[in-house]
Design goal:
The complex is a heterodimer of chains A (about 150) and B (about 375). Chain A is mainly β. Helix content of chain A is about 10%, strand content about 30%. Chain A has 2 helices and 8 strands. Chain A has a 5-stranded antiparallel β-sheet, covered by helices on one side. In chain A, strand 5 (about 90-95) and strand 6 form a beta hairpin. Chain B is built from 12 helices and 11 strands. Chain B has helices at about 25-40, 60-65, 80-90, 130-145, 150-165, 180-185, 210-215, 260-270, 285-295, 305-310, 325-330, 335-350; strands at about 10-15, 50-55, 70, 95-100, 185-190, 190-195, 205-210, 225-230, 280, 365-370, 375-385. In chain B, helix 5 (about 150-165) crosses helix 9. The two termini of chain B are about 20 Å apart. Classes of the chains: A mainly beta (about 150), B alpha/beta (about 375). At the A-B interface, strand 4, strand 5 and strand 6 of A face helix 4 and strand 5 of B.
Chain lengths: ~150, ~375
């Protein structure tokens, strides 16, 4: 039987948050998953934008996501993009309940238990002093495995 | 006034040697070899050229070969061909040189193509890279339609076997492969195993496009661009490669990228899918061929897997595929040569020059570049008759 997928440890490639994206990463450090919504047309934007992709308004407001969603697609990676990553890991596209998609990794599950539309829930892992990364865990198993105490 | 809309054709094509690491060349010497070869193939000289298309290297090529003043193209990959033809047909140039050559580009992470590394901060920390990006599209298709692992293996073994009999291929004499051999190779990013993935390699190529009056007196039979198209959803490797990513019109999603391009290409060509004799499809990963067969209308959505299982892409099938071995076995030589090399193979088929695997009587070839994992797809349909 395969092992439970774990968060990464140590250094990972990541950007220094910019003016537009700092709000998102600061919220992650605070345990909140956030997205933007256009004040003019109510369309959701993620990743963050300066200009609404639907109506070109510049009036965008941050909202908290429930952090709940379903697994849209995934891949079990055995050969990492750089040696920084421990394998296997599972890049995943998540359908958030609010109606947008984001990239993350699926953890807290065995690779042979993954299936499309799996209900998932966000969890946050502090990997570096300046990087708290949102991951997703199976919603129904989250109480048993993640989030860990103290994170 | 009769010349104001002169038609144009491909009159010269050439591939330099290709290799995983090409020794003894610099980018300049490799490009020069490609240009000499294509001009010789066309029976033309540098003095005949008054237009250049070489992506970001274009203006340097104009200077380096003393070609100025010359028209300068701005497109990339297969988009360079319809752009060059339009330039000639609108009188901006008479003979256009298209060249792409890449060598010495693999400095680190040696087996990941450097132009494919995600840089967006909402992708990179989760370990994305090309194989994973395309795998996310494939996995969604498999979950939705029941496309099987075996069907992916049929694509990969078909292409690799075509390359194994091509003496010009980087992986010449590597094969034959059975479908089971594909899944027996080590897993990379599921569903993809090593032999589902294109190689990384180096090489150059060039094409010469000329006005019809020059084309008709060229050394070889002119090859015409009957139709072309391009579909883009955004920059590659910066956003989640979702099958269902849609623009505001919503008519075609990213998982069908190329469908609009194909409709436009077939409409302007005035031909149907039945008229196509050979397919030279972009094959970065096995699944992408199945996806393109659906997007281009060779089979209905979700039926690409059964379509390849029925033998349609075999060398003796209805639509022989990637007859030189494609990106998996012939070469995957940098960001731009790999795209143009699909069109070069299509042109060779129409000229009857595809020695290692010539499809008898091939008159129409559909060539493509790009894929859903990279959010774009481009098409050219080549033929032996004037459009």
């Amino acid at each position: 039987m395969s092992e439970l997928l774990e968060p990464q440890v140590g250094y990972l490639p990541h950007a220094t948050p910019g003016r537009l994206t700092r709000t998102f990463w600061d919220a992650c450090a605070d345990g909140r998953l956030t997205f933007q919504r256009c004040d003019a047309c109510r369309m959701i934007a993620f990743p963050p934008v300066e200009v609404c992709r639907a109506c070109l308004s510049t009036e965008l407001r941050w909202e908290n996501s429930s952090g709940r969603g379903r697994l849209y697609s995934w891949t079990v990676v055995h050969r990492p993009v750089t040696p920084d990553f421990v394998t296997p890991y599972v890049p995943a596209i998540i359908d958030l309940d609010e109606g947008y998609q984001m990239m993350s990794n699926l953890i807290g599950i065995r690779v042979d238990q993954i299936s499309v539309d799996l209900p998932v829930q966000v969890t946050f892992e502090r990997l570096l002093d300046d990087l708290v990364l949102p991951y997703f865990v199976p919603a129904r198993a989250s109480d048993l495995t993640y989030p860990r105490e103290g994170t | 006034m009769a010349q104001s809309h002169a038609r144009a054709a491909i009159v010269g094509v050439y591939n330099t040697p290709q290799a995983r690491r090409l020794e003894g060349y610099t980018p300049s010497t490799l490009a020069a070899e490609a240009v000499r070869g294509a001009l010789d193939d066309a029976g033309l000289t540098l003095s005949d050229i008054d237009g250049v298309s070489a992506a970001s290297a274009g203006s340097s090529v104009v200077y380096d070969y003393s070609l100025g003043p010359a028209w300068l193209g701005g497109q990339f990959g297969l988009g360079m061909l319809p752009e060059a033809i339009a330039a000639i047909e609108h009188g901006l140039a008479t003979v256009v040189l298209i060249v792409a050559a890449e060598v010495g580009v693999y400095r680190d992470h040696a087996s990941t193509a450097p132009w494919t590394r995600p840089e967006n901060e909402f992708v990179a920390p989760w370990g994305l890279f090309t194989a994973a990006e395309f795998a996310l599209v494939a996995q969604r298709h498999m979950a939705t339609y029941g496309t099987t692992r075996e069907q992916l293996s049929i694509v990969a073994s078909t292409i690799r076997n075509n390359g194994s009999v091509n003496p010009q291929a980087v992986y010449y004499d590597r094969g034959p492969f059975k479908p089971d051999d594909i899944v027996a190779s080590r897993p990379i990013a599921e569903p993809f195993h090593l032999l589902d993935c294109s190689m990384t390699s180096e090489g150059g190529c060039a094409l010469v496009v000329a006005a019809d009056d020059i084309a008709r007196s060229a050394k070889h039979r002119p090859v015409y661009v009957l139709g072309a198209g391009g579909d883009y959803f955004g920059p590659a490797y910066r956003y989640p490669p979702s099958f269902d990513l849609a623009g505001r019109r919503g008519d075609v999603v990213n998982g069908r990228v190329g469908a609009r391009a194909a409709e436009n290409a077939f409409r302007s060509a005035g031909i149907s899918r039945d008229d196509v004799d050979v397919l030279e499809l972009y094959d970065p990963f096995s699944f992408e061929v199945i996806r393109q067969l659906e997007a281009f209308g060779f089979c209905p959505p979700g039926e690409g897997g059964p379509f390849v299982e029925e033998g349609n892409i075999a060398p003796t099938g209805r639509y022989p595929l990637n007859t030189d071995g494609g990106l998996m076995s012939y070469s995957h030589a940098g960001a731009n040569p790999q795209m143009l090399q699909r069109a070069i193979r299509g042109a060779q088929q129409i000229r009857g020059d595809a020695s290692s695997l010539q499809i008898p009587g091939a008159r129409v070839a559909l060539c493509s570049g790009g894929g859903a994992g990279a959010l774009f797809n481009t098409i050219v349909i080549l033929g032996d008759d004037r459009p």
